[in-house]
Amino acid sequence: GAVVSQHPSWVICKSGTSVKIECRSLDFQATTMFWYRQFPKQSLMLMATSNEGSKATYEQGVEKDKFLINHASLTLSTLTVTSAHPEDSSFYICSATDYGYTFGSGTRLTVV
Amino acid sequence: GDSVTQMEGPVTLSEEAFLTINCTYTATGYPSLFWYVQYPGEGLQLLLKATKADDKGSNKGFEATYRKETTSFHLEKGSVQVSDSAVYFCALSPNSGNTPLVFGKGTRLSVIA
Q: What is the mean pLDDT of residues B30-55?
């Protein structure tokens, strides 16, 4: 079946630094990927839709300059959290579509 | 817009009890419906899905039937196990191109031995 690899699974960084999260579709090509953020004991909040070769579409209230999304190939999308602050600490999950929706295993980001 | 409403938890059951998690939706057109499961610290795994009215999705003893007349997709399992403890999300896809899933708020299930 379709597999989406998300890396890293967890990361701790200092305030003010940037962190990159990768999302790869391993056995299919994904023209569209989605990035979600999940707060503790809450549902997934869609951050942006990433389309290969074009700019990402951000949801209202999501800072595009803070959460940089790049979808340079049909199998890779990246989310970079720039100048991270403690309030950016969260669980980030990507999803890719082929004939269905496949999710990565998530990245736990802790900003100290 | 499209939306999904599912019963809020947490739900606590004893092992071998019957499980029902209610899910209703609002959508224009003919969405596909999904149940996803999330174990602690992990991403979402597809549990089952249904793409049209009266379809029944099933997997690992879980079942859900797409009921268009009641706009519902309730999740059921006849006999839960401790290993079923997780958060369950009901979701819909509007089936209009590469659009994101619309999620319910999730229901946390705890099964005790």
A: 93
Q: Looking at this protein, which amino acid is placed at residue B26?
A: T
Range with the lowest mean pLDDT among A12-26, A35-49, B87-101? B87-101
SS3 content of chain A, % helix, strand, coil (to 5): 5, 55, 45
Give the other-Cβ count within 10 Å of B90's Cβ. Answer: 29
- Would you state the pLDDT for residue B96? 65
CB of A95 closer than 8 Å to CB of A103: yes
Name the interface residues of B facing A (CB cutoff 8 Å): 34, 36, 41-46, 49, 89, 93, 98, 100-101, 103-106, 108
Q: Judge contact between B75 and B90, C-beta under 8 A.
A: yes
What average pLDDT does range B71-100 have in this prediction?
Answer: 92
CA distance A104 to chain B (A): 6
CB pairs under 8 A between A and B: 44
pLDDT above 70: percentage of residues in chain B: 98
* Number of alpha carbons in the 13 Å side-chain half-sphere of residue B83: 2
Specify the amino acid at residue B111: V
